[in-house]
Amino acid sequence: MRRRFIRKVSSSIIKELDVFPKVPDVCVQTSISGGTVSLLAFTLIAILAIGELSYFQNSWIKYNYQVDTTISSKLQVNIDITVAMKCDYIGADMIDQTEARVGESGNLQYEPTYFELSAKEKAWQRMMQNIQRQLNKEHNLLEFLIKSSFNGTTATKSPRVVDSTDPPNACRIHGSMKLNKVAGNFHILAGKSYHHPFGHAHVPTTKDPKVYNFSHRIDHLSFGPPSPGLIHPLDGSEKITETNMYMFQYFLVVVATEINTYKFSTNTHQYSVTEKEKKLTGMRKKHEIPGILLKYDISSLKILISEEGMPTSQFLIRLCGIVGGIFSTAGLLHDVCGFIINLLCCHCKPREQLQRQG
């Protein structure tokens, strides 16, 4: 008995709290105008709901900046450069602002190779150059690559397969180095380098300038730990010169970058580059040596790249606003239309009565 009484009391209390009173069906009157407004309202709700759902499923890339507070004093540099002259005639080394003497090449390797590319390598190079051109024109392409997690398919180079009986005519310099996290330069010059108390110098192994040819191809140049699939500004670039005495200069600004997306997270370094070329006069008084010079500077800023989307709570709130707003607007529109129709009917009835009496 006590349980039944509790159930009756609780059900009656809940009914009293109902703020949506039900109207009997005999009191409901339908009309063509009401049905038309309802159909338009449901159609508009469906269209806006679909658009809101597509926007909820989409995401965007957000960029923030902060001071780089990392205390690491070393920065890894990854290099893969092919120069169109033999390895015996060139030398690669590095010097920075903290050391008076030249830095060791570290794990850099000199590999005799061929400057000409195979068909697959040419296709890979054209693809990389097309991507670089599109990145310069369309910023949205970079956001697409970031959200696609840099799966590595665009930056994978096919291995070299050369069928030639001729001796190698180029030198591939590749590997990684640990540098101090300060400004410095990496250069590939004519002649091997040697140390002396006041710095360093490059001593040419030949006096014949005809052997110099610093046409080169940069297959890869990056800073920080290797990130497969990440495309850098100089990847796939190529410079050709027909002059023996020629200097190529690249000025780089390196910025620490942290990437956090829904698919992956990584800490790397990006860089911007400015290029300059110079034809040397060959005068001994100016001590001009042909070669490739990469000057880099480390930025004090850090870029934070994150992928963001609409929260689920915000999506539900916007969806409820769409449904409630359209229903309220549709009801108000229907009432206004009904009032105007009734007003017009009231004006028309006396005129009809006067015409009948006449």
Write a structural description.
With 358 residues, this protein is α+β, with helices and mostly antiparallel strands. The protein contains 5 helices and 13 strands. Strands 1, 3, 6, 11, 12 and 13 form a 6-stranded mixed sheet that branches.
Strand content: 25-35%
* Residues in helix, %: 25-40%
Q: What is the H/E string?
A: HHEEEEHHEEEEEEEEEH
Question: Any idea what the shape is?
Answer: elongated
Radius of gyration from CA coordinates: 37 Å
For the biggest sheet, the summary is:
6 strands, mixed
Would you kindly provide a brief summary of this structure?
The protein has 358 residues and is of the alpha+beta class. The chain contains five helices and 13 strands.
Supply database-style keywords:
five-stranded antiparallel sheet, alpha+beta, 5 helices, 358 residues, elongated
Task: Please specify the SSE layout and strand pairing.
Layout: H1 2-16, H2 32-57, E1 59-67, E2 74-83, E3 90-96, E4 109-113, H3 119-137, H4 139-147, E5 170-180, E6 184-190, E7 192-196, E8 199-203, E9 216-223, E10 237-239, E11 246-260, E12 265-279, E13 291-309, H5 312-357
Parallel strand pairs: 11-13
Antiparallel strand pairs: 1-13, 2-5, 2-9, 3-6, 4-5, 6-13, 7-8, 9-10, 11-12
Helix pairs in contact: 2-5, 3-4
